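Data availability (excerpt). The following record was deposited with the supplementary files.
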Amino acid sequence: MTRPRIIDLPGSRPFPAFEVWPKKTFLGRDKNESHCFTLPKELVFPMKSYFSLRDGHLQDSVVFTHKGDEYLAQIRLVRMDRSNPSKLQKHSLPKREVIQFQWKNHRATKTMFRRNLSSVFESLNIGEKNERFSVLFQLEEKSRVTIIFRMDQQEMHI
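Predicted structure:
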């Protein structure tokens, strides 16, 4: 699996959990060193509403929690207008919005992900795809997101 997927976990939480299989962009191995990922499209409207993302407020701070430690990140509303398509006509591609988590400017967060996903980092460096290691994200309360690292659907580093 390579696309983020929604997982319903027991308990009352504001949103379902979602699982992501880190790729180059997640670990900053892309040309822009992005350190981000896009949430499942089913969560765009609910997250946009929950964090009041709109014109003039396109991003907000969030805190990732892992093993009792806190790591800073942002949630961002990204508006894609696709104004320079290479194969299709501009009017054939509708504008769309996506929600991303990003931690490009947060060294401790980047270090935490790289430490816990070191084998994924090395695999991506030699051109392999990641299909074994995933990260589970669960919004616990306003601006706090719990992270669980998983391998082959089993929890690791809890």
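Summary of structural features: The chain has one domain: 16-156.
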